[in-house]
Design brief:
Layout lengths: L13 H11 L5 E4 L14 E4 L12 H17 L9 H13 L6 H14 L5 H8 L1 H7 L1
Parallel strand pairs: 1-2
Length: about 140
């Protein structure tokens, strides 16, 4: 398996899926999906579309990587977070998981650290008062 991309989307509509694919798939790529109807737009994206039948068991599961990553994320949510976390932070958790997964075979620890520093510098700045406000239980009372 190579690199992965994960993103929280609003729904399973063709529009939401197309937005994700346009941002993450190069033209000319082969996109392998199940038979979900919302994927019908892929032929219009200048990509080849391979549909697999997931209702039949076969040893050559072409979506093996998808199923593996999904099960690992479920294990992360159920194990590390005990199934409890704020949904508004889900994209942050997925970003962190993608970072670790995509660098799982990296032998140079300094390169990992450099990438973390680059992402921190590139990320949006959060002030101390914003962090304090979000952590203050009374702030929820004043926000309503």
């Amino acid at each position: 398996m190579g690199r992965i991309r994960l993103q929280v989307i609003l729904d399973l509509s063709a529009y939401s899926l197309e937005t994700f694919l346009l941002d993450n798939v190069d033209p000319g790529s082969t996109v392998v999906t199940d038979g979900w109807k919302s994927y019908n737009f892929i032929e219009d994206m200048n990509c080849s579309h391979q549909i697999t039948n997931q209702s039949r068991y076969n040893d050559n599961d072409s979506l093996y990587g998808v199923h593996l990553v999904t099960s690992l994320i479920k294990r992360l949510i159920r194990g590390t977070f005990q199934g409890r976390f704020e949904p508004k932070y889900l994209q942050n958790y997925l970003d962190e998981y993608v970072f670790r997964f995509n660098r799982r075979k990296s032998k140079n620890i300094g390169k990992k650290f450099m990438r973390i520093v680059q992402q921190v510098v590139k990320s949006t700045k959060i002030t101390y008062s914003k962090i304090k406000w979000d952590m203050d239980p009374i702030s929820e009372y004043y926000a309503t």
